[in-house]
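Q: Could you fold this chain for me?
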Amino acid sequence: MKKIHLLYIVCALSAASLYSCDDFLNRDPQNKQTNDTFWVNETSLRTYAQDFYSTYYTGYGIDYTIFGGYFSGDDFTDDFLTLSGGTRNFPLSPTAGINATTSPWWSNTTGYSIVYKANVMLEKIPGMNISDEAKAHWTGIARYFRAMTYSAMTKIYGGVPYIDSVTDPADSPTLYKDRDPYLFVAQKILEDYQYALANVRTDDTKRQVNKYVVGAYMSRDMLYHATWLKYHGTTVGPNSDDVAEADLKALFQGAIDGAEVVMAGPFAIGNDYNAIFASDDLAGNREVIFYREYTTGLQGNALMSYNADFTQEQGGVTENVIESFLCSDGLPIGQSPLYEGADDPSIKNSFKNRDPRLYVTIVDSLRILYGGLSTIGLSPTGYPPKKFLNEQWLADGSPFTRNNQSPADAPTIRFAEVLLNYAEARYEISKVGGNAFTQADLDRSINLIRGRKLLKWGENPQVERTMPAMTLSGNNISVGGTVINDPARDNTVDAVLWEIRRERRVELLMEGRRGEDLRRWAKYEYLNSEDENGNPDKTFLGAYVKLSDYPGLITGETGVHLFNPADPTNPEPEEGYIWHLNQKNVRVFKKGELDSERYYLRSIPATQITMYKDNGYTLTQNPGWE
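A: Sure. Below is the predicted structure, expressed as structure tokens.
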């Protein structure tokens, strides 16, 4: 077990002295810090900055709700069938059930309180009696967290009022300024990240933000904003304008710069994928850049128990993402001769000869919610995840696999994501005036990930498996001399970019990234519950089941519903994909129509718009929410 690390903040007490009455009346209070007496040294700054950490590094959470963004905590996606409170109905996206009346406002969350806190820190640092190096470092820390905050708000609302100094409460024009354009805010976020990347220390003690953490989050956030602005323009709807290539290029370069700092650091891809997500201590794991620590007896998390013992009523992995995993020869299932699930795509066939990450991410046996075959680890899609499960703890009957007792540390950002951010940003920048995308870019990013040697749980004898390297072949990707020609590819996405996005999808499955990816790529059409023929899309379907293989499986109204694409009108087929919801028109997104496109941004609350108006100012609403 990890050692218990406790952070003690020691306050030095000065010896008591005698003062006259005048001295006493003119002194600051002696039993508490004031804004002027607090800013003394680096200990003061470190103490002040700790509040930022709890906001942005939530890890796995501490209950059974959203698991800090992991597992079911991602946005509604095509990877995971998310069920609202165990019911069989849910909207298109997290914003679909929110309107101008009910939408939360950033001032009601931590957003602007964190901005204010960062701005206070930036105001106080220049007058402190510390070294220039220390001033630069802590200024970088404040600007890093300010960038993180504006980035988080912009992902939700688009443009927001940008304030970069401590505001006088009487300064109404600043307090009631309208939203700045998305591009302007993204450029300011980039400036803060650039300063932090250049000035934050390479090492500033355990679990404190350092240069590598800055670079990692910079690669994530700048890639998000660059791609969002590329694929949406300045906003959503008919009034959106294209963003100049030079502006996009600068944002993509920011993502690349952040990634390259990390890539030059001490990180590496290891050979134990599950150890990243189910280990007692991530301190020595070279794949992990930053993590949230959990400790036995102090604070644990519930994510592992939800994967081990409990019925997963919050949702399950979809057939759509299972089919996105390549075969072991590096080819898609619709192209590879190794795929054995063409005629019978049940788990026992479709899981053969696949990307080894499938075996360490999803349990290769059927466990169906409401099927009556088992009582633990059940999924509404039949696919229980294995990614967050410590196999040894489960085999030993450890209490860590039950309730909120797991001490498994949570990676908040890891090396593989940075490599994927780099690959995507390098490809995207090549389309807006940057240098050409090359084989070297693949070799120093995705091909490093594919070199990971993985073992399949429970297999005897144990066999190490890797994935073949990707080779750039003109405007395509090839593996082993065969050009990938995926029949499932979205034809609006370049073939190379499609494979980069696929790699991202399978590597980061259930890590809270897919929802953001679909938003920034403007691909909410992937979320539709029906395909072009009006049949349930595989985003809404689970594992393929033959009733003859599972005697006793409960079907019908209180049990498992199946859908057979070969017999689509049969309400009670003998085989088919699990169709948990058994409903039509659950999610409908119409690309190009404002009533659908508006969901890429959240509504600005009517109460805030009214408050601005009552004070003589204007707060602009997002398109489609007027």
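A (continued): Residues 3-33, 85-92 have pLDDT under 50 and may be disordered.
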